[in-house]
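Page header: ASSEMBLY MODEL / two components / 488 residues total.
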Amino acid sequence: MSAEVRVRFAPSPTGQPHIGNIRTALFNWLFARHHGGKFIVRIEDTDQTRFVDGAIEAILDGLKWLNMDWDEGPEVGGPHAPYEQSNRLELYQRLSEQLLDQGNAYYCYCSREELERLRRSNRESGSYSAGCQCRRSGRAGAVGEPVTDDDRVIRFAMPESGITRVHDLIRGDVEWRNELQEDFVILKSDGFPTYHLAVVTDDHLMEISHVMRAEEWLPSTPRHLQLYQAFGFEPPEFAHLPMITGTDRAKLSKRHGATAIGEYEDQGFLPEALLNFMVLLGWSLDGSTEVVSLQQIIDNFTLDRITKSAAIFDQEKLLWMNGIYIRDLSAEGLANRMQEYIPRTLNAEERHYLRGIAPLVQERLKRLDESDDITAYFFGELAPDYDPAILVQKGMDAPGTLAALQAATDALNTTTPDGDFGHEKLESMLGEVGANLSLSRRQFFGLLRTAATGRTVSPPLFETMEVMGRDRVLARLQEASRKLQPTV
RNA sequence: GCCCCGGUCGUCUAGCCAGGUCAGGAUGCCACCCUUUCAAGGUGGAGAUCAGGGGAUCGAAGCCCCUCCGGGGUACCA
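Prediction written out in full:
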């Protein structure tokens, strides 16, 4: 094996990168980092009709978001530039000519109708006759003729017998009978190469040591191997990764809901959580450890621990893991991340306030996009409007609730001037008030919670009050009394 | 149709290559504990005759054969 490990992620800019694409990138990146090799990004934009504007940026953004840096490729350049196949056309055309000269390829003038008829009859007869008539017709291009022409393509002439075998690093030996392989197009009539020619050309030129790609590419491997042989290039190692599917076990596509990597960022998933979760789809450290640090992953990322079977992307488990990573953040770190999901701009004072709120909501957050809602009632002098009916606890009535509210307000006013408004003090003091009213903790604290936050669910009451501060809490208790007044 | 890959709790997986503990862990679900709500945490439970069937073996999830099911490919798409 050659000394340096060089792997690549070669996406087509045909849309938003989805989980499957990114997972493939991740495995390549991890493999490179594990071996101290190079990770290369190459843009496979050989289909002009499917090119989507902004797709390249979306792909690169996805890699950056997950902190996967590349050693060669767009933006960073490298010794094998350019890294966009559309800028390497002469290369493919020159190599096509070489194959033509060697007799390994030929011009094909068949129309789509002719080809369809040919394939249909092959299927019906059950036998396969390789290639179209062009292969034997002698209508080869004259020497010196341009390789591109509007109505002809160049096809690779597959051997008519023998076997092509690949030793896949994940699947073991896989072989195909050459006579069953079709003469595939290598250069389209518009002068662009097909995937097969381009990938072999560039993987060789860029000195790729291991081709790690999704399993859907396994059937085209014999074509690539034959190209390597025809060119006299030494083929790289191959490793076909298990696919990630939707819940129906079918290949990921638009109809599977949220699959684009950008959507996960929008929904408030932490990149480190998504990365940890994704690597577990097809790879495991030891079968029992689920939360694994990036360094641990890199240190232990070997091909022999990669699964063969496809995996369903389970959103529920991702959610769980995201919660783990959220709880692992420092208060400062969490506050900073939350801020990005709060639409309005916070001033310095509010940012400091949020820093205090963060620890309270930390273990209640599963996704960062809940940040705005879960902190909403902390801001503002008064709580967001709510139905006064929710102030009245089970087993209580409006007058009783009003009286309890008043007792709490009095206690807060008399016993906490501007000194201790800590949660422990609040708990002992208000606990006593509730007891004197012979209310259960559930009742008394429940109504105080609602009065203070406008909600029936919140972080622990006294810590919430402490963070909110005396003035805000008092204002809200008064507001609660006011709201309740008319109903009495 | 043809070619190729795969098949262990609902889901992600360990174990398979170098046969021999009640097939382990996690998630999700249920229950209980903790508890001022919601979470988080703790404990326990249900959940897989290892796709099915043969075979060699004292012994198979593991090795061999057949079948079934699922997926991928079968484009001048990648």
